[in-house]
Design a protein that fits this description.
- By secondary structure, this protein is mostly helical.
- Helix 5 packs across helix 7, helix 9 crosses helix 10 and helix 10 runs antiparallel to helix 11.
- The longest helix has 18 residues.
- The two termini are 36 Å apart.
Length: 256
């Protein structure tokens, strides 16, 4: 029975691997849409709303360096050191999932997040996770790190119908991605775990706290100076409003 079960699992994984999308075309072509964009559009139509989509592709050179660094430190500090999967964090997440009896957020590298955005759903099944890992491997084999980062920054969700950092910068701060300050970049990076809940206008205390953490991390990893850190902390408070510190903490799970 055990042998038969293992063969069945192997057959499912093999079939999934063979039928998964090819990442090689992304080396030269930008995707016209993504699985997440289509899912959000379907959700809007089912709710009787017109789907909203704001997106404008920009190269890495057109994104402020502090904003890029903020996203990397917040989402995947070891991005340039792994091959698509952070095995240490993955092992921790698996252990936690076994203890809690469910898959939670965490351990997903930036490459894995890109794979999920491009091709998969937002469910948290083991099969979807297995596909995510295989697709992350394909992305790393087919693309450079810079290309993966550029794709990620241009397709990731930054609010209701807002995709990519250019649209996110204009939606939330009224500036282009190239003009983002340290504080603005930290706020955008801190939105990513739950971008439709943690908008700058939401009064989210979690967003305020995480934005300050990201600013401090930028200083710790010597991406900004002490003077820049001080100024960025003050700007975060202005952007998000210190009044939010008195707001009750909401249960902000990293939902789909």
């Amino acid at each position: 029975m055990l042998g038969g079960l293992l063969l069945a699992v192997l057959a499912v994984i093999t079939h999934a691997y063979v039928t998964l999308p090819d990442a090689r075309p992304l080396a030269k072509e930008n995707p016209k849409t993504t699985a997440l964009m289509e899912q959000r559009a379907d959700e809007a139509r089912e709710a009787g709303r017109k789907p909203r989509r704001r997106q404008q592709w920009v190269p890495l050179s057109a994104i402020s360096k502090p904003a890029v660094e903020a996203v990397l430190l917040s989402e995947d500090a070891s991005f340039y050191l792994h091959d698509g999967v952070d095995t240490v964090e993955l092992a921790r997440a698996v252990g936690q999932a076994v203890e809690e009896g469910k898959l939670g957020r965490g351990a997903s590298t930036l490459t894995q997040q890109l794979a999920k955005n491009l091709w998969l759903s937002t469910d948290r099944s083991l099969l979807r996770k297995a596909k995510e890992l295989m697709l992350a491997h394909r992305l790393e084999e087919a693309l450079t790190k810079q290309r993966i980062l550029m794709l990620y920054l241009n397709v990731v969700e930054w609010g209701n119908g807002v995709y990519g950092i250019e649209a996110g910068a204009r939606e939330h701060f009224g500036v282009s991605a190239s003009q983002l300050t340290v504080a603005q970049g930290a706020v955008l990076a801190s939105m990513l775990p739950s971008p439709r809940k943690r908008s700058p206008s939401s009064g989210s205390r979690a967003l305020l706290k995480q934005s300050h953490r990201v600013v401090h991390a930028l200083k710790v990893y010597r991406r900004i100076s002490a003077e820049q850190e001080e100024a960025a902390h003050a700007e975060v408070d202005r952007l998000l409003g210190r009044a939010s510190k008195d707001a009750s903490d909401e249960a902000e799970e990293d939902g789909p």
